[in-house]
């Protein structure tokens, strides 16, 4: 299974949904980077992704985007191949 990194906050409903979807697809380990606890990480996230909102999800070195992007990948049957690469 691929390495999954998710920039998130504790109370973000989209972060929770993204984690649920990933777990439904068999991901057992998600490295969560909490930008609400560490503001410097939000700056890193913004520089790395060009986005301000959470979640921001990486699968291996591929920036997937946020929850809507993750769900769209799943609907188009492209998420599982990415997770299994």
Question: Can you tag this structure with a few keywords?
Answer:
85 residues, 4-stranded mixed beta sheet, Glutaredoxin, alpha+beta
Q: Please state the overall shape, judged from the principal axes of the Cα atoms.
A: globular
Please, what is the CATH homologous superfamily?
Answer: Glutaredoxin
For the terminal residues, how far apart are their CA atoms? Answer: 7 Å
CATH fold field value: Glutaredoxin
Mean pLDDT: 96
- Helix/strand-derived category reads alpha+beta
Q: Can you describe what's shown?
A:
This protein is an alpha+beta fold. It has a single domain (4-83), classed as Glutaredoxin, CATH 3.40.30.10. The chain contains four helices and four strands, in the order E-H-E-H-E-E-H-H. It has a four-stranded mixed β-sheet, sandwiched between helices. Helix 1 (13-24) runs parallel beside helix 3 (67-75).
């Amino acid at each position: 299974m691929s390495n999954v990194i998710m920039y998130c906050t504790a109370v973000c409903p989209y972060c929770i949904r993204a984690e649920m979807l990933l777990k439904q697809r068999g991901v057992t380990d998600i490295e969560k980077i909490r930008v609400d606890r560490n503001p410097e990480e939000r700056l890193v996230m913004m520089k790395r992704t060009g986005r301000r909102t959470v979640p921001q999800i990486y699968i291996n070195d591929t920036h997937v985007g946020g929850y809507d992007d993750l769900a769209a990948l799943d609907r188009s049957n492209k998420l599982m191949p990415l997770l299994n690469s």
